[in-house]
Structures are given as C-alpha cells and as structure tokens.
Amino acid sequence: MPFSPHLANQQPADAASGMARRFAQVRRQSVALTSPLTAEDCQLQSMPDASPAKWHLAHLTWFFETFILERFEPDFKPYNAGFRVLFNSYYNGVGDKHPRSQRGLISRPTLDEVLGYRAQVDERILTVLTLHPDDAELNKLITLGLHHEQQHQELLLTDIKHALSFNPARPAYARHWPLAGISLQPQRWLGFESGLGEQGFDSSRDGDFAFDNETPRHKVYIAPFEIGSRLVTNGEMMSFIDDGGYRRPELWLSMGWDWVQATGAAMPLYWQTDADGDYRNFTLQGLVQVDAHTPVCHLSYFEADAYARWAGARLPTEFEWELAARSLTVQQMAQGNFVESAAYHPIAQQHQHPGSPAQMFGDVWEWTQSNHNPYPGYKPWEGLVGEYNGKFMCNQFVLRGGSCATPLSHIRVSYRNFFPPDAQWQFSGLRLARAIT
User: Fold this and answer.
1) Is residue 388 within 8 Å of 381, Cβ to Cβ?
2) Cβ contacts of residue 125 below 8 Å, gap of 6+?
3) What is the pLDDT of residue 3?
4) CA distances from residue 27 to 21, 59, 128, 330, 383 in whole angstroms, order as listed
5) Which phi and psi (to 5°) does residue 127 adopt?
6) Of the chain's two ends, which shows fewer C-beta atoms within 10 Å, N or C?
7) Per-state percent for the chain, helix, strand, coil, to nearest 5
8) What pLDDT digit, counting tens, does each position of 238-292 carry?
9) Which comes out higher in pLDDT, residue 182 or 329?
10) pLDDT tens track for 100-134
11) Burial level of 381, CB count in 10 A (0-12/13-18/19+)?
C-alpha cells in the first residue's frame, strides 16, 4: 500500500518516532542497493543523462543538508562547504553546480567519505526531528526528501545497468534468473465509457503525499475508449521487428524516424542477436535470452508510439490510464513486480484481474501520449524546492505505473513520471489503447 505516515493523527513524539523510523529505513535502502557494487562500479558514468552511484548517494545527502539542516539545525555548519556545488543537481536557486556530464570525473571524495557524509547528516536529521517533533513544515520537507530519495534509488539501478552494459564481460548486478510467470494471457480489450470525471491526486485514495505536478485535482472529459488488458510483450515486439517495423517510416513520427536514422536503432535497448539469430538481452541479471512472454522494456516514446501504430492502436492518454487504474484495488496494485521482489527486471504476467487491466503497477513504466503539462490551476511548491517539477514541463512525455525498480511505497495512481521522447534507459514499456467509435 502507498506509504501513508498519517502524521496528523499522531502525538508529536509518536510522529517524530514514526518519521525517524521511515527516514532510517529509506536511507538504509539506498546504501543497500550499492552493496553488490564495488567502489569502481560506483564511480562509473556512462552518459550525461546517467549519474554514478556514488554521486546519487552524495546528492541525496546534499538534499537533506541543504533543504532541512540549513533551515532547522541550530548553529548549522556544512559537512564540507564544497559539497554544496559538487552535489547540486539542477537547483539554480541554491547556487552553482558541477556540470552534469562530468559527475563521473569526481574521484574525490571517495565512496567511503561519501558514506561518512551520509552517516553524519543522518544523525543530525534525527536530532532535528527530536528538537522539532511537531513542526509540520519539517515533516513535509523530510517526506519530500524521502520520496526524492526513492526516485534516485530507481535511477541508481537504471544508471548502473547502463554503465555495466558497456563491459564486454556482461557482469551481473544480481543473480535471480530465471524469473517465472504464468502462461501468457491473450490480449483483451477493456472498455470504459465517456464522461466528465475528477483526475489527479486524491488524498482519500492515494495516501498523504504527492508531488506538485500531480495537483490540483481537476475535471477532465474522456471519450469512450478501450485499453489493453496487459502490457505489450517481447514476443510481440519481435513480430514488429520481423515485419520491418524499424525500417518503415510510415509507422514513425517525423522526429522518431529522424531518431531511428541518426541512432541506427533496430531493436530495443540492450537487445542483441547471437550467432543463431536468437535475441539476447542484457539485464541486471547479466546477459540472458529474451523471454517472449515478458513485458518489453527500455523503449523510447518513439518506439512505443510506432509499435502501437503498427498494432492498429495507439498509446493511452494519461487520463485514460488513470481512469483504468482506478478500477484496481489497493491489494491488486501491491501485487505488481516492484523493487522489493529483487527481480530487477520485468516478469511475465503473474495475476489476472477479470474486468480490470493487469500489470498496471510495477514491471515497466508505461508511456502515455500525454505531454508533461501543468494541470489547470497548478502551482509549484514554494521556496527552493519549487524547482522540482515545474521547470521540466516542456518536451517531456508522461509515464505511469512504476517499474520493477520502483519501491512499492513510492507509487500511487496519480504519480506522473516524465522523460523526453528519446529516453530508453529507464524501464519503460507500453500498453495499447484505442478509441471506441
């Protein structure tokens, strides 16, 4: 179930204790995700859009030091004044920042020093919590910081996967293969009627936290549509490839076809063919045979859109996706394949939900055809954290549902992830939709 601290219903001491436990658990998880890695692994940066694992650990600590300790700690002194620039990501209001593309060149501080930085800041945050147990703004900022940390836990996994893929030895992050599922279920179409309904964050159903881009709740008219009962699979993507999908410009958006021509794309990221012509796939489990029943992932928006057009369908809008997702119970949401399963890869369909779509949560982020635009009446958060989402409402598309690298306690129906249309390194896939005429 989505994390819901219910701080308003607790006594101050209980609230501080509950928040402290939650803080310690999330912070431990970030370090635990690096336990299969060496210090050399943690230094790797394979492209400007990815960051070294060491940088993620430091930046997450920078967030708590900059936005919480500077404000709430008596006689605040920075752990290291140089870290304010070194581990700033994109917060222009905070000041200067180290170039994103050069994060892999930061050999110092060492990984051990970064872990020491984390330990000291953690101790200081817990002290601040005991000093201000009933401060609503403090609790709000720490909750934001924890969800920010969970976002980076997912990024840490996607980024190290990209980095390890360049090693010719194809090293595994973890070994839990093979991953079993039930037999492939036929793709069915589930219909939804037209209507004017409420969309966006619903505190009565989505928990006690949402990012600002999920608000405000507002009315949206949705025409009648059908949505696929499950995710598109590797086997179905193979059929698209075999039918010349990557060589047929009529299937692609103009920018998408330019992307195909410029990159030479001929299959999803991390796929390759062996000497027998069989598809192999680099995963966090190492190099494995592509399983036809597993949801296809690491697709760009361009690829997802082209596949949908080839299949005689389209991508859903984010509002169609949200309406369909609301048909699931909290228990059905929690059945998804999240990071807690330690699969670190999509798996074939595990459950069936008669009358409702399966695999809506976990496995892969689902591309929608919706631009990452502000909702009517949108207001960014006040203060320096206001740079969190609003500045990225340009040239990005919305993805929904979480992935196999997403913590379960981080996801909710209203969650809006977003990436540019050429991004492939995230665990991104698709579900089909079509209009009812």
Assistant:
1) yes
2) 23, 64, 68, 69, 142
3) 28
4) 10, 12, 16, 25, 24
5) -65, -45
6) C
7) 40, 10, 50
8) 999 999 999 999 999 999 999 999 999 999 999 999 999 999 999 999 999 999 9
9) 329
10) 999 999 999 999 999 999 999 999 999 999 999 88
11) middle
Q: Which of 275, 272, 53 is nearest to 164 (CA)?
A: 53
- In this structure, are strands 428-429 and 365-371 parallel, antiparallel, or unpaired? parallel
Structure token digits, residue 62:
């920078």
What pLDDT sits at residue 390? 87
Distance CA 77, CA 383 (A): 21
Cα 131 → chain centroid? 34
Q: Tokens in use for 398?
A: 């919305």
For 348-377, how does the pLDDT look when each residue is reduced to its tens digit (9 = 90+)?
A: 988 877 888 999 999 999 999 999 999 999
Q: Give the CATH superfamily of 189-435.
A: paralog of FGE (formylglycine-generating enzyme) (3.90.1580.10)
Give DSSP secondary structure letters for 186-229. Answer: PP-EEEE--EEEEES--HHHH-S---GGG-S-EEEEE--EEEES
Among 46-55, 173-182, 370-379, 381-390, which is the least confidently predicted range?
Answer: 173-182
Q: Within 10 Å of residue 300's Cβ, how many Cβ atoms?
A: 26
Q: How far is CA 235 from CA 262, 273, 420, in A?
A: 26, 14, 26
Q: What is the pTM of this model?
A: 0.94
157-181 residue pLDDT tens: 999 999 999 999 999 999 876 666 5
Tell me the two tokens of residue 146: 């924890």
Q: If you count them, how many residues does the chain have?
A: 437
Inform me whether the pLDDT recorded for 16 exceeds 80.
no
